[in-house]
Design a protein that fits this description.
This protein is of the alpha/beta class and 425 residues long. It has three domains: 20-221, 2-enoyl-CoA Hydratase, Chain A, domain 1, CATH 3.90.226; 227-359, no CATH class; 366-421, OB fold (Dihydrolipoamide Acetyltransferase, E2P). The protein has helices spanning 2-15, 35-50, 67-78, 98-105, 131-152, 156-164, 171-176, 187-194, 223-231, 234-253, 259-276, 282-300, 306-321, 333-359, 366-369, and strands at 23-29, 55-60, 84-88, 94-96, 108-111, 116-118, 168-170, 182-183, 198-200, 206-208, 215-218, 373-376, 383-388, 391-397, 406-413, 416-421.
Length: 425
Amino acid sequence: MKRFLFVALISAACALPLGAAPRIISVNIDGVIHPVTVEIVSHAIDEAVRDNASAVLLRLDTPGGLLDATREITSKMVASPVPVIAYVTPSGGRAASAGFFLLEAADVAAMAPGTNTGASSPVLEGQTMDPVMRKKVENDASAWLRSIVTKRGRNTELAEKTIFEAKAFTEKEALDDHLIDLIEPDQTALLNALNGREITRFDGRKQLLDTAAAEVINYQPSARERIVEAVADPNIAFILLVLGALGIYVEFSSPGLIFAGVIGGILVLLGLSGLAVLPINWIGVALLILGISMFVLEAKFTSHGVLGIGGAVAMVLGALLLVNGPPEVRIHLATALAVTIPFAIITMFLVSLAIRARTNKALMSDAGLVNEVAEARTALTPGGKVFVHGEYWDAVSSAPVDAGAPVRVIAVEGMKLRVEPTKHS
């Protein structure tokens, strides 16, 4: 019995793992930084805490983004119970503008060869700021960046120059000037170099990194995050919105198609959901509405193209002013022109067809039959049958007509036509 228990204990001990490999949750920030990015980073940190991960790895390749979203992300990074490693990758990538704030806020800042960072001058609402406003915004951003960089023990003076002078750095310059901690060619080399490294957390605690042979797990965004992130690009959102509006108009102008209305409604909602995460300028919205109104009026009134050109100009300006933010989160001029010109042509064409159809006489009414030429299918002496508009009618002629001869409809009396011989009869 004792021998059995001894063997069982030895077997159980052998079955226990000698030590699970450390886990690292990685997340890519490879586009414009906006509110959806905040959700993704926040959920990645939460997942790392639940899984007792060794670190969170942010792979940066971003042109920048919205200042408010960047503030939220840096707040979550410095408050993270799990160390955060920021790595600018791949070669040729960058952590520009808002990306520089994320790089400096991380517990470890690293870059791959051939990358760059910096150029963090804030831009307010995509507009040229007056000197007083620019000074206020720059000082606010500088104080925020200074508080982060000082805590991380990095070069505060040079970090501020990325704001006041829009200074940018290569990976070697950033390392030599003590803005980052190391340069590594790839992710594996980075994790090997960090293993056993002692870091100072934002609250002053010392912690050793355990990254050797770590299992790197890519954070999987939710379906909602994937969809909103895909359409959060203002250029894509604008295209979806315009295509959706066109589909809905086609449905209203030709009721019963159904498909155009359904697809149009879905595209409009997707476009709005993408724009909803971005700061909207209502002047831009008003210009878009004005532009569409001018297209409709151009089809209705003879303005010799003035209204159409005005509508196109208003729509382009509305697209350019639609999003408040730095250049990387605004709609590009090329996108605005590529969408506006075809939309203007198609809209005016459809509106003109609809207006022309309403002004034409109805073919199935009394007015639609009067003066039409019918064919006598029987001899009219004076009554008989005629064929007109694909239908057989009872008819009474003012003079005898042979079968097969053409007659002209002169009146409609209930379900009977009054006709007369034509000169060809």
